[in-house]
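Quick entry between incubations.
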Amino acid sequence: MDGDNSTTDASQLGIAGDYIGGSHYVLQSQEDDGDDGMNDNEDGIGSKDGFREQDIYLPIANVARIMKNAIPPTGKIAKDAKECVQECVSEFISFITSEASERCHQEKRKTINGEDILFAMSTLGFDSYVEPLKLYLQKFREAMKGEKGIVTSVTVTDGLGDELADESFIDFCLCTSANQLPAGLITADGQQQNVMVYTTSYQQVRILKHYTYRNLVRPSKDCTEL
Amino acid sequence: MAGSDEGGKMLDFADSRQVSLPISRVKLIMKSSPDVNNINQDALFLTAKATELFVQYLAAYSYKKGSGRESKCLTYHDLARSPEECDTFQFLADILPKKILARDYFKLLEEKEKEDEGDGEETDDSD
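Done. Structure below.
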């Protein structure tokens, strides 16, 4: 177990599953109020030696902050409630994503887009979110648009994948999916770098704190996918 | 082929006009779903934003329904009741099991056993 005081595994209790009856119970210890820092992971990732997929959560501090804003200022939130909402959030994201993904597949597309997400929301009973989300999306896009001009930018990552590695190395790029070109470049020393190339006629790359530009490269015909 | 999805990292939009959740983490969770290939920027943003709205909704709803029990404190118990009371939260039913003290549970078990024994005797008698 994860050091949790409660268990849903009836076999560990030596009790046959059918005794649990209609409701699903979790055993709670006497002092179970979250003081003991069970699974105390501010980071929101499971075990230390790498994460299991089912343990991926959003950071508890962010979640707690949003919860706090939703209740009256005098209200408090129990620690196990915060942890629980962390899990609910991951469940929610997966829930929406799988619905959106299904629609995507049905339409024979490979990339989940905004429409798929909005459609999933309204199918799953969150249709009241759709209009506000559209407004937010509009604001988001406007915030990203800058002055007109031709801008080319490239961001380079040192390796594949691990998005959680090395927060000091963050490249920020703006694009819409229609303007993305994936490419692998072989650099002078023979190493491959993964590259995202953007061309756009009316977007400007915003300079925000915490980013570094590694390269600015004009896309050329030599840019081939590898 | 270069990983077009892996390339490039998004900044966390700490700006309150944007989202207050780390986009990269949201993406990680989304990608852990089976059969998900690529996710477009808009979809990521919408999901992150929707998640914020969801947290607010769940917290506010549970708190409102709960106040009166543990006054002014949102507890796990309040959250665990939400799937019963609101259809939208039904999907959370499995991950929000209600908690029960062990001694209460064993009491329940005993009572159930007694009922079963009682039934057994009746069946024997009916000839």
